[in-house]
Amino acid sequence: MTGFEIGGASAADMELIRRWADEEGWNPGDSDRFAFAVADPAGFLVGRIDGEPVACISAVRYGSAFGFIGFYIARPAFRGQGYGIRLWQAGMERLDGRLVGLDGVVDQQDNYRKSGFRSAWNNVRHEGVPQPNGSGGGGAGFEVVDAASLPFGILAAYDRRFFPESRDAFLSAWTGLPGRTALAAVRDGRIEGLGVIRPCSGASRIGPLYASTPAVAAALLHRLAEHTPDGVVAVDVPDANPTATALLAGLGLAPSFEAARMYTGPAPDVELAGLYGVTSLELG
Q: How far is the C-alpha of 143 from the C-alpha of 139, rounded, in Å?
């Protein structure tokens, strides 16, 4: 591996990583990289041969005890030569001593198991144009509002119910970047749902999608779909929440992609019953 070096990603590298992920068929958000960079600026690594980027990985730290692996990509011409595993080792070393999660594509899950990861559930991407189900844009005692109209502390506390560590800087960017829409469901002054939609090269992706009931989730999803050019959305639904799976299927969205949520230890204690769509397959 003469000439192979691992270093931190630059801003230009972050755009390159997004493009590589797009070529893998993962349909990353057009502006995701700006939120990813503030989550953990040193958490994105690139492997280079004589200065040319050939592989990447993200190893993002959250709080003091959790980490997440993503963007594990080696360019096709450089696979099977040991470059990817060098990056993997560097990423895992960065997260040493933490519970580590990832979303593993089907053909890599056996390799992740060899590294100590165990499946917790599958995130199944459901894609299509949501069909009417009578929920409308509100009703049943709740109102759908612009999430930016709520104090950020309320959003951050709500997100913490569905994620094992606080991630305020990331969440602020994720919900507020130009070109994306964040909506919240509010009942009697309490937040009961949150959804964010962002443009991608393919179907616009919704994530997170949190909700106290299927009616809240459906209302948010329909309202978010209004902010797409063609109404087509994609949501990564945890199959550990069968209510969410049934709702998305009932709205006419069909499975199109699958990844296993895996951890190096016991799965974190989060509110799966309210998790209708995960935030990101790359950062959790």
A: 7
Q: What is the largest CA-CA distance in the chain?
A: 64
pTM of the model: 0.94
CB-side exposure of 56: number of CA atoms within 13 Å? 25
Residue with tokens 């393919």: 202
C-alpha closest to that of 123 among 206, 212, 26, 238: 238
- The Cα 40–Cα 160 span in angstroms is 17
Residues 6+ apart with CB under 8 A from 81: 1
- Which residue is it, tokens 């917790």? 120
How far, in whole angstroms, is CA 233 from its chain's centroid? Answer: 15
Tokens 């502006």 locate to: 31
Contact 209, 217 (CB under 8 A): yes
d(CA 193, CA 275): 10
Joined together, the tokens standing for residue 116 give 């100590």
Contact, 52 vs 5, CB < 8 A? no
CA 265 → CA 33, 38, 145, 269, distances in Å?
Answer: 28, 26, 38, 12
Q: For the purposes of burial, counting CB atoms within 10 Å of the CB of 59, is it exposed (0-12), middle (13-18) or buried (19 or more)? A: buried
**How many Cα atoms within 13 Å fall on the side-chain side of residue 42?**
5
- The residue among 223, 222, 194 whose CA lies nearest residue 208 is 194
- DSSP secondary-structure letter at 65? T
Residue 106's pLDDT is 87
Tens of pLDDT, residue by residue over 116-157, are 999 999 999 999 999 987 544 455 799 999 999 999 999 999
